[in-house]
Amino acid sequence: MVDFNRDIHCLLGLPFDAVTMAEAVGRVHRAVSDGQRCFLSTPNLSFLIGCLADRGFRDSVINSDLSIADGMPLVWMARMLGIPIRERVAGSGVFEALRCDSAQGMSVYFFGGPEGVAERACQKLTTDSAGMTCVGHECPGFGSIDDMSSESVIARINASGADFLVVALGAKKGQAWIVRNRARITVPIISHLGAVVNFVAGTVRRAPVWMQRSGLEWLWRIKEEPGLWRRYFEDGMALLTLLVTRVVPYVWYLQHHKADADQLAMASVETREEGQSYIVRLQGAWTQRNIAPLRDCFSNAVLAGKDVRLEMGGVTYVDSAFVGLVILLQGYQTQHCRQLLLASLQQPVHRIIKYCCAEYLLKR
């Protein structure tokens, strides 16, 4: 069931949880202790750019349980847009925090990585870590997702009793493998953390903290893995395009258009059911300040088990929190082969959704 109580925001088409490193680590610990499932996605700039052109890749992030901003360019753009993502929360940083926490031990299974690297990482982790033990590893090679999803593979992972399954197959392939198999896997925490296996094994050194915090980690990564230069160059060009066409125009728009107190006070929501559709009629402005009623409303909408129609002719303004919440709703509806329709959008709302790179919400 999707959690509409998350502090979620849309940044360039993807949902991001506005959490700190400590909060993300706490969320992982709670999932393990409570026996809950948590699919952790760690979008960085390359992730984000890839998701703009690949619906399946994007949906894997939308349908994750926790999505953290793993990249300083994302944090900087969020700050420009007033999105309350206060710090970079790197997937490797979350893993390292868990690894160093001797008070709450955790077991890990490595799936993927270059030949021999996962085995080496497993040995080093068990020998050197205060808060982690490795209970298994597997290098599936370069086969298809089908080949890597056999009953025997899943049975080995489940039999390990691991708390955390670290997948390292390449971002798109790793996310797709998780989506394909998450319902069959009993490990509480699943995440694609491609570089972590190399970091733990010592085959690649992580950048100094000052480079991570200043947004220069990409230079260090190129030094360690020269073959990455082309990817970083292409990502940089794509980032420049996004800044010119989406981020800067959105910043300008936000400076000149804000929801006033009267618009917020007019916000209202009415629901009704018509045949196979659950109708949600919205009025006024919806922002992080007054979005609480929509959390319960969207929860009730998915429980109805019908197509959902948001009638938005009376909506005058929305922000990243509203768009993020609608993205979660769209993700759930898509997973369950149901429709979400946004109807009668006014031009300002349509423009904001475009600046958020969330036009896919408007497609039938």
Summarize, please.
The protein has 364 residues and is α/β, with parallel strands linked by helices. It has helices spanning 21-34, 45-53, 55-62, 72-80, 91-99, 117-128, 151-159, 171-181, 194-201, 209-214, 217-224, 229-256, 261-265, 292-303, 320-335, 347-355, and strands spanning 8-11, 14-17, 38-41, 66-67, 106-112, 132-138, 164-168, 189-192, 268-274, 277-286, 307-318, 340-343. It is globular, with a radius of gyration of 21 Å.
Structure write-up:
This protein is α/β, with parallel strands linked by helices and 364 residues long. It has 2 domains: 8-236, Rossmann fold, CATH 3.40.50.2300; 261-362, STAS domain (Transcription Regulator spoIIAA). Helices cover 48% and strands 19% of the residues. The chain is built from 16 helices and 12 strands. It has a 6-stranded parallel sheet, with helices on both faces. The radius of gyration is 21 Å and the shape is globular. The two termini are 23 Å apart. The model has no long low-confidence stretch (mean pLDDT 90).
Can you tag this structure with a few keywords?
Rossmann fold; Transcription Regulator spoIIAA; 6-stranded parallel sheet; 364 residues; 12 strands; single chain; 4-stranded mixed sheet; 16 helices; alpha/beta; globular; 2 domains
SSE inventory with pairings:
Layout: E1 8-11, E2 14-17, H1 21-34, E3 38-41, H2 45-53, H3 55-62, E4 66-67, H4 72-80, H5 91-99, E5 106-112, H6 117-128, E6 132-138, H7 151-159, E7 164-168, H8 171-181, E8 189-192, H9 194-201, H10 209-214, H11 217-224, H12 229-256, H13 261-265, E9 268-274, E10 277-286, H14 292-303, E11 307-318, H15 320-335, E12 340-343, H16 347-355
Parallel strand pairs: 3-4, 3-8, 5-6, 5-7, 7-8, 10-11, 11-12
Antiparallel strand pairs: 1-2, 9-10
